[in-house]
Amino acid sequence: MTESGNITWHESKIKKEDRHQLNNHRSAVIWFTGLSGSGKSTLSAALEACLHKKGIRTYRLDGDNIRHGLNRDLGFSPDDRKENIRRIGEVAKLMVDAGLFTLTAFISPYKADRDQVRQLVEADEFIEIYVKATIETCEERDPKGLYQKVRLGEIKNFTGIDAPYEEPHYPDLVVDTDQLSVADSVEYIVAYLKKNHFIAD
Ligand SMILES: Nc1ncnc2c1ncn2[C@@H]1O[C@H](COP(=O)(O)OP(=O)(O)OP(=O)(O)O)[C@@H](O)[C@H]1O
Ligand SMILES: [Mg+2]
Fold first, then answer.
1. Which of 41, 42, 188 to mutate to test the pocket of ligand 1 (most atoms within 8 A of CB)?
2. Burial environment of residue 95 by CB neighbours within 10 A (0 to 12, 13 to 18, 19 or more)
3. 106 Cα nearest atom in ligand 1
4. For residue 145, how far is its CA from the centre of ligand 1 (angstroms)?
5. Tens of pLDDT along the chain (201 residues)?
6. Element (H, E) at 181
7. Of 81, 102, 167, 168, which has fewest CB within 10 angstroms of its CB?
């Protein structure tokens, strides 16, 4: 839906398929979702380094980084969280069109918002990875000191504490970071990407 009727799509001469051919690989969104501290940023950065080494073109979109720029006008109310994910979805779609494996690290607590992003791209261009860790583990890790601030009453509407996290019902992959090391988690995801022919063996 657009606000103005006076806009016309201008087709490029170069298509996504042309870029795939040039790159020698496909493109897709690898969407990491999970509680704060579950390991989305850590894992997506480690996976990106691994893919880059294999000669695969990537880009990573990370919650905190995007909130510094594109989404600096958004807060953490349900509506703002929804708009946050909608914009990221549109950016990720452009990046997939540009031929990149696009790794995203957002809590993205609402199932409907994640499903909406899935609908934006082709069925075989969206991989939802549930980065799973108990709230106790996340609070113990507390890599950014956020849980401590929540307990001190300095942060409100925090996912998993006083704001909901809706677990994915049918994620493409679940990575249990309570059980797996970062290296093992990356290996597990790479194996999935190979098995499902996203990347070559
Ligand atoms: N298997 C694992 N995968 C990822 N992180 C792990 C794993 N095991 C332990 N960790 C640790 O858990 C912490 C995860 O922090 P990280 O910043 O990646 O979380 P996040 O999900 O991005 O949180 P936020 O939503 O607040 O940005 C790090 O300190 C990391 O070293
Ligand atoms: Mg993060």
1. 42
2. buried
3. 25
4. 12
5. 577 788 898 999 999 999 999 999 999 999 999 999 999 999 999 999 999 999 999 999 998 899 999 999 999 899 999 999 999 999 999 999 999 999 999 999 999 999 999 999 999 999 999 999 999 999 999 999 999 999 999 999 999 999 999 999 999 999 999 999 999 999 999 999 999 999 998
6. none
7. 167
One-letter identity of residue 185: S
Q: What is the DSSP string of 138-165?
A: HHHH-TTSHHHHHHTT---S-BTTTB--
In three-state secondary structure terms, 195 is helix
Instruction: Specify whether the CB–CB gap between 118 and 126 falls below 8 A.
Output: yes
> Of the listed 27, 44, 108, 185, which one is catalytic?
108
SS3 of 61, please? Answer: strand
